[in-house]
Amino acid sequence: MNNIPGSPSKNFFSQSNSSNLLWQYVQSMNPETVAQLSKPAPEVAQIMEQNLRGILGNLPPENFSMAITTSRENLGQLLASAMMSGYFLNQAKQRMELENLSIPFTNDKNE
After folding, report:
1. 66 sits in which H/E element
2. What whole-number percentage of the chain has pLDDT above 70?
3. Average pLDDT of every residue of the chain
4. Under 8 Å between Cβ of 6 and 72
5. What region, left, alpha or beta, does residue 6 occupy, with left being phi > 0 and alpha being psi -120 to 50 degrees?
6. Which region holds residue 39: left if phi is over 0, alpha if psi is between -120 and 50, else beta?
7. What is the pTM of this model?
8. Pfam families of this UniProt entry (predicted)?
9. DSSP sequence for 11-32
10. Where does residue 93 rank: exposed (0-12), middle (13-18), buried (19+ CB within 10 A)?
């Protein structure tokens, strides 16, 4: 077998992107929109930093010189966890913004 551990297999990318509507939508966006959507929100970045500090240890970097040793697999799992947390927090932020923008609907027919 030619598979290198940790590298994607040949079939990993074989799913046709033409059937993925979200991918088509993202590709149709102009670069400015993609750049705007890719900007990290300061609140989300702060929560992510706190989350990673909690995972890795909460020692202040200005007072301690730390080195973290891990395997490639564990580092990949940490990265995946951080990405999922980031997606979750970004969605929560967007939902909060939408809820703050929503205006209560009143039915004027009864008044």
Report:
1. none
2. 75
3. 73
4. yes
5. left
6. beta
7. 0.46
8. DUF760 (PF05542)
9. GGG-S-GGG-HHHHHHHHS-HH
10. middle
| Residue for token pair 């900007």 | 39
Model pLDDT for residues 3-31, shown as the tens digit of each residue: 444 544 444 444 555 567 877 877 888 88
Spell out the domain ranges in the chain: 43-101
With a CB cutoff of 8 Å and minimum separation 6, the contacts of 62 are none
| pLDDT the model gives residue 11 | 46
Write the CB contacts of 30 (distance below 8 Å, at least 6 apart in sequence).
none
Residue type, 61: P
Six-digit token string for 49: 């930093």
Closest by Cα among 45, 54, 53 to 86: 45
Distance CA 111, CA 109 (A): 6
CA distance 5 to 12: 14
Q: Look at the block and give the residue holding tokens 């932020």.
A: 93
